Amino acid sequence: MSEPPAASPRTPDATRRSERSRRAIFDAALALVGEAGYARTTVEGIAARAGVGKQTIYRWWPSKGAVLLDAFLDLAGRSGGAEAETAGGLPDTGDLAADLKAVLRATVDELNDPRFEAPTRALTAEGVVDPELGARFVERLLEPQLQLYVERLTAAREAGHVRPGVDPRIALELFVGPLTHRWLLRTRPLTHAYADELVEYALHGIAAR
Amino acid sequence: MSEPPAASPRTPDATRRSERSRRAIFDAALALVGEAGYARTTVEGIAARAGVGKQTIYRWWPSKGAVLLDAFLDLAGRSGGAEAETAGGLPDTGDLAADLKAVLRATVDELNDPRFEAPTRALTAEGVVDPELGARFVERLLEPQLQLYVERLTAAREAGHVRPGVDPRIALELFVGPLTHRWLLRTRPLTHAYADELVEYALHGIAAR
């Protein structure tokens, strides 16, 4: 992740060409890793599929892991799902349950989106067995998303909607953990109804009062 | 998974030899997949490491996936962790919180056990990208464990400790999902204190009353 293409334009035309190459490289990287898996994806393969020289890729990224991570960040930024809210944080209408349901439903849609699913599975699986890649994945992609939950839950606690002693960093895992578990391991269908029920259970607990 | 070795003994000596071979094959399979990953583990490699002929493996199992799954089932059966309770179900002392904490703490210890960790990561990661293997993993290994939670939570609901409307199959994911998520993605340390807090949050919810 040395110098991103858009940061070194010489002329408007060169900028446009760079942006086109960058987009082609990202698309090729995501398609390849989704089809062939992480291990069988190579910088050579990405370059061939993107119609650029291998050196074009190495000029901007040191490794296939770096290209893929940037491609994912770009995908997450363009997606219509939960990550689209990153800039502004999670919705805060004052109704915590409704806001969390909206976010989890969007996440369900994103995880069920075929364009998103195959490459995300490939990168996540590789992070499960490769601690170094996993740490970068968490630091750059996952943790910034989880922080949005921390912020929303902290605001809810201040507003008196969440119990005073609750740690938002642990509480958020009640929403994100089960959803990801169900998706990754395909134990049961990932639906809006499930997202809603998860929010109810996590907010109100399962114990009798 | 054709005929298991212990099922076709001719003499006591042959049975002992079969059992020794089976143990050596399982140990070799788990060690290899933990070291080299699923894709680079082969029946040939397992046979060489176990000191048996390739045909010995193919006599008992149709593929490397089948050997690995049986090796995992065997490991889970021998482990001191949560799966050891499979036969008798989860503990039921009448104190749901205490019982769930005991089970989740044992699961934490098991997930942190190096002997268990590398092969489990390798198989789980492969199941994430290979739906067919993932389905067998869930059906034979994961779902039987999850059913123990269903039984314990159903009993707790009947005893009036869980709210009447709660679906145990969804509720169990509040415990298992976050724990697995934290372990797989290595977001934060997996500790007993975390297991306890998870149980408290899931039982009592995070919303203010």
From TrEMBL, chains A, B:
Keywords on record: DNA-binding, Transcription, Transcription regulation
UniProt key word DNA-binding: yes
Origin: domain of life: Bacteria
Gene3D superfamilies from the UniProt entry: Homeodomain-like, Tetracycline Repressor, domain 2
DNA-binding region per Swiss-Prot/TrEMBL record: 42-61
Region feature (Disordered): 1-20
Residue ranges of every copy of the HTH tetR-type domain listed in the record: 19-79
InterPro entries: Homeodomain-like_sf, HTH-type_TetR-like_transc_reg, HTH_TetR, Tet_transcr_reg_TetR-rel_C_sf, TetR_C
Pfam short name (any one): TetR_N
Keyword Cell division attached: no
Record-linked PANTHER family: HTH-TYPE TRANSCRIPTIONAL REGULATOR RUTR (PTHR30055), TETR-FAMILY TRANSCRIPTIONAL REGULATOR (PTHR30055:SF148)
Protein name: TetR/AcrR family transcriptional regulator
Source organism: Streptomyces tamarix
